[in-house]
């Protein structure tokens, strides 16, 4: 009885799986043979946002669009492009949103300055506290 | 009937919280002792009533009472009982009720057990606790009633999100909530001390166990949550710098800083204003975290109970409490006397450095998490993710580790630089040797951060046990053991993180049954693939035989599951744990006729991450017991003497 139920339910997801009727992305789940290139591609994929998911990188997503983007990245890496060129291409196509690595756009300057400002503020606060001897 | 009883209990509890606040306010301003005498029983009754309301909701879920809206939308009668039970808090209303319950019970505990505190500070603390609770009662009763009925009652419920159907749900959210509420108690103590002008070491000693307990629970909650996401999401990652993860990390960072500064205040009576400030920040961060998670204002993989409208309610609560606390802080901080002084080379200085670096990391995580909201307001959508946090917070965290290793080897108040240098000699030597050895073995193959991580982990592991050197281990106090173990845990965890990011081997294959896959010294034979069924799911399960170096093979069973209600596919990764790492196998989709996608990772020493987290929590627990045991024994003796 349980097995019958199982088989019936297994039929249910079939239409869902059939949605990916587009030509398959050849390198979505296939690694580049050269490990050095694959490492390059993987490092880049981990910093590219999956646009159809809830906050996941395309390296960590099952979404079909993420698969297409992984395939694109691997193919471009194999064609000899540099990761930062591919990132720039993706950003020009999908906007800054796609890159988990913030760009150097002026609106992001405060973000990059934050660590220096915070450390500086902390040091100023600290300066008054340390090295004081008990006053007579 | 049960639902109505639960709702009534909640209303009564809210009324008692209001009464508690009024009693404290009138009693303290008018110096009326007879009013204050009623505060403790009221707090205890309030705790009991919230527990009753929570028990009512749990009962409704266990019985699958489909006339209650919350049960309909979040449960299903065919679900295993553990998930019916844990599903009580796997949703917005239920989790807020859990929060209020924990808060009510903690308030009762403060009323019952904190009598060593000066009476007026104790009362002011209970008043602050009542004020915080009131906001949450209002939130529950006016915008998120967990007991609302539905008519007509449907035949069955809509089920629980399959990602949550895991034993982790029974453990992870309650642990984090207990931690958050512990921080709210610390906050109440700080408010009480500010109101009654009693910011001193007695106040710190009363607050410390709450901070320690909250910190232990937060550590456990984050560690468990990280492992849960690691095996449940099926992508082999353990930390994504996702907004919800950051939301849980920020209170932990603040609590870690608070824990250290409250210890300085308790033992050395220094850092008074700073400790109060950190108590305010720690609670604020747990409120900010709740707001970020509950409002859905930032997208996240872990957000399961999101409602934007309620977000504005929490934002209002946040503004009232944080604004109020900061105003009180600004108004009263002038009355806090300066603490005991200390010199540049001293343990206090190292603890100040610890606090500074933790606060900077906290600030960076906060800025990085909220920055996308800010730019979106200007019409510019950006993402701030792992590359930013790793690169910016990573080096600061490594600096923090160095301070952590050196701090316990310094003396309180003043130390001579030469003597401190001699004590640091062995760890420094280990650091240099490790730098050379790791460099020779792995240079060019691993990134700079993982390299520094490995080296610093080795050196800090040695440094963290150095305080035990030449001490009689049996006579070493329990809280020193706690500190040593917690610091060692940080080193262990760092080693796991560095090793995982440096040495993980990934293999993606499309295999058919009978194929043999070789990767990272492992030999995996794909035996067969078969359908399987559970209580409320069906699955395709692959049988994969894994062996290494001619050893006996182990059968692994990765699954691609499909849940019926709500209809959702999930992956169940198969993990094989060995002393030197974990093999992680995920079954993907069918690639083409008869071939199946499989992702295989070998992750050397990845388990150290969570082992370290557990050690940190264990160290905290030992410190808590070590610090409090004497007090308990004395109380017990006093009570026996009376009886």
UniProtKB/TrEMBL annotation, chain A:
GO MF: metal ion binding
Source species, domain of life: Bacteria
CDD domains reported in the protein's UniProt record: CcmH_N
Transmembrane portions of the chain: 107-126
GO CC, one annotated term: plasma membrane
Signal peptide: 1-18
A Pfam family matched in the record: CcmH
Domain annotation CcmH/CycL/Ccl2/NrfF N-terminal: ranges: 24-134
Gene Ontology biological-process entries: cytochrome complex assembly
Keywords noted in UniProt: Cytochrome c-type biogenesis, Heme, Iron, Membrane, Metal-binding, Signal, Transmembrane, Transmembrane helix
Family that this chain belongs to: Belongs to the CcmH/CycL/Ccl2/NrfF family.
Protein function: Possible subunit of a heme lyase.
Protein name: Cytochrome c-type biogenesis protein
Automatic annotation (TrEMBL), chain B:
One GO MF term attached to the UniProt entry: heme binding
Protein's UniProt name: Cytochrome C assembly protein
GO biological process terms held by the UniProt record: cytochrome complex assembly
Transmembrane residue ranges: 6-30, 42-62, 96-113, 125-142, 177-197, 209-229, 249-266, 273-293, 313-331, 352-372, 392-412, 424-443, 449-469, 478-498, 605-625
Protein topology in the membrane: Multi-pass membrane protein
Keywords associated with the record: Cell inner membrane, Cell membrane, Cytochrome c-type biogenesis, Membrane, Transmembrane, Transmembrane helix
GO annotation, cellular component aspect: plasma membrane
Domain Cytochrome c-type biogenesis protein CcmF C-terminal: 315-627
Compartment(s) of residence: Cell inner membrane
Entry keyword Cell inner membrane: yes
Domain of life: Bacteria
Entries under PANTHER family matching the protein: CYTOCHROME C ASSEMBLY PROTEIN-RELATED, CYTOCHROME C-TYPE BIOGENESIS PROTEIN CCMF
Keyword Hydrolase among record annotations: no
Function: Required for the biogenesis of c-type cytochromes. Possible subunit of a heme lyase.
Family according to the record: Belongs to the CcmF/CycK/Ccl1/NrfE/CcsA family.
Principal location class: membrane
Recorded coiled-coil stretches: none
Residues of the Cytochrome c assembly protein domain: 89-295
């Amino acid at each position: 009885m349980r097995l019958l139920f199982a088989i019936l339910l297994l039929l249910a997801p079939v239409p869902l799986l059939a949605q990916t009727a587009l030509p398959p992305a050849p390198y979505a789940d296939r690694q580049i043979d050269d490990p050095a290139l694959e490492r390059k591609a993987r490092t880049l994929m981990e910093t590219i946002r999956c646009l159809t998911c809830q906050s996941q990188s395309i390296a960590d997503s099952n979404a079909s669009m993420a698969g297409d983007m992984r395939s694109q990245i691997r193919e471009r890496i194999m064609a000899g492009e540099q990761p930062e060129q591919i990132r720039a291409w993706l950003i020009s196509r999908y906007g800054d949103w796609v890159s988990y690595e913030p760009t150097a756009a002026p609106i992001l300057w405060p973000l990059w300055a934050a660590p220096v400002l915070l450390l500086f503020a902390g040091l100023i606060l600290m300066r008054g506290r340390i090295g004081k001897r008990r006053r007579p | 009937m049960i639902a109505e009883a639960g709702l009534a209990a909640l209303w009564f509890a809210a009324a008692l919280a209001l009464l508690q606040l009024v009693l404290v306010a009138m009693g303290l301003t008018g110096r009326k002792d007879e009013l204050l005498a009623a505060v403790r029983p009221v707090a205890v009754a309030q705790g009991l009533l919230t527990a009753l309301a929570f028990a009512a909701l749990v009962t409704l879920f266990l019985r699958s009472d489909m006339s209650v809206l919350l049960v309909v939308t979040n449960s299903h009668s065919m679900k295993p009982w553990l998930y019916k039970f844990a599903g009580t808090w796997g949703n917005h209303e239920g989790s807020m009720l859990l929060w209020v319950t924990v808060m009510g019970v903690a308030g009762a505990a403060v009323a019952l057990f904190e009598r060593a505190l000066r009476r007026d500070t104790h009362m002011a603390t209970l008043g602050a606790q009542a004020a915080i609770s009131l906001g949450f009662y209002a939130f529950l009763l006016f915008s998120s009633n967990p007991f609302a009925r539905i008519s007509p009652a449907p035949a069955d419920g809509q089920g629980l999100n399959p990602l949550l159907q895991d034993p982790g749900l029974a453990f992870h959210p309650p642990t984090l909530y207990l931690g958050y509420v512990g921080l709210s108690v610390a906050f109440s103590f700080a408010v009480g001390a500010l109101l009654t002008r009693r910011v001193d070491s007695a106040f710190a000693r009363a607050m410390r166990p709450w901070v320690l307990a909250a910190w232990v629970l937060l550590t456990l909650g984050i560690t468990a949550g990280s492992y849960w996401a690691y095996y449940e999401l099926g992508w082999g990652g353990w930390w994504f710098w996702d907004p919800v993860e950051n939301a849980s990390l920020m209170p932990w960072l603040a609590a870690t800083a608070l824990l250290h500064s409250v210890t300085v205040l308790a033992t050395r009576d220094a850092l008074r204003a700073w400790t109060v400030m950190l108590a305010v920040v720690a609670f604020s961060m747990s409120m900010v975290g709740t707001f970020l998670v509950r409002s859905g204002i930032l997208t996240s993989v872990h957000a399961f109970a999101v409602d934007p409208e309620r977000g504005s309610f929490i934002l209002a609560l946040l503004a009232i409490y944080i604004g109020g606390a900061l105003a009180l802080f600004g108004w009263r901080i002038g009355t806090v006397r300066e603490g005991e002084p200390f010199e540049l080379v001293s343990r206090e200085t190292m603890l100040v450095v610890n606090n500074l670096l933790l606060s900077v990391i906290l600030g960076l995580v906060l800025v990085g998490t909220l920055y996308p909201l800010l730019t979106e307001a200007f019409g510019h959508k950006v993402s701030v993710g792992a590359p930013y946090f790793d690169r910016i917070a990573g080096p600061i965290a490594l600096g923090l580790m160095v301070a952590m290793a050196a701090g316990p080897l310094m003396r309180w108040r003043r130390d001579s630089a030469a003597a401190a240098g001699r004590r640091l000699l062995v760890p420094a030597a280990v650091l240099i040797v490790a730098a050379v050895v790791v460099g020779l073995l792995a240079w060019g193959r691993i990134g700079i951060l993982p390299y520094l991580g490995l080296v610093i982990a080795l050196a800090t592991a040695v440094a963290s046990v150095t305080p035990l050197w030449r001490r009689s281990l049996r006579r070493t106090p329990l809280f020193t053991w706690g500190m040593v173990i917690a610091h060692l845990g940080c080193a262990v965890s760092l080693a796991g993180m560095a090793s995982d990011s440096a040495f993980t081997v990934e293999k993606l294959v499309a295999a058919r049954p009978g194929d043999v896959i070789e990767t990272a010294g492992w030999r995996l034979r794909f035996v067969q693939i078969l359908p399987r069924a559970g209580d409320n799911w069906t699955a395709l399960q692959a049988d994969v035989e894994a062996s290494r170096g001619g050893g006996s093979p182990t059968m692994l069973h990765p699954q691609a599951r499909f849940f019926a209600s709500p209809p959702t596919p999930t992956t169940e990764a198969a993990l094989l744990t060995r002393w030197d790492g974990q093999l992680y196998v995920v079954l993907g989709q069918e690639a083409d006729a008869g071939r199946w996608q499989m992702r295989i990772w070998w992750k050397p020493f990845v388990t150290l991450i969570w082992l370290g987290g557990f050690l940190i929590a264990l160290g905290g627990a030992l410190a808590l017991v070590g610090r409090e045991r004497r007090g308990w024994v004395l109380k017990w003796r006093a009570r026996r003497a009376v009886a």
